[in-house]
Amino acid sequence: MNTGAPFVLRKAERKRYVMGFFSSSITILQTLVTAIGAGLGVWGVINLLEGYGNDNPGANAHVR
Question: Rounded to an integer, what distance in angstroms lies between the CA atom of residue 62 and that of residue 64?
């Protein structure tokens, strides 16, 4: 029980608060990095598949 002012935290409470902040920050960053990686992976697959299309025969006009 904290007998001081309500905004004063004991050392153990302060440590728990700071560790909780870092723990939630790490979780958010992991989610963000995973989402960015998945987005880049999908973008890369789409770019690879675009190269196999034959939707513009005019692009091969120089070949006779």
Answer: 6
Task: Give the number of C-alpha atoms closer than 13 A to the C-alpha of residue 18, restricted to the C-beta side.
Answer: 7
What is residue 48's predicted lDDT score, i.e. its pLDDT? 87
Residue type present at position 33: V
CA-to-CA distance for 56 and 60, rounded, in angstroms?
A: 8
> Which pLDDT tens digit goes with each residue over 13-44?
777 777 888 888 999 999 999 999 999 999 99
Please give the Cα distance from 18 to 25 (Å, whole number).
11
How far is the C-alpha of 7 from the C-alpha of 17, rounded, in Å? 13
What pTM does this model have?
A: 0.56
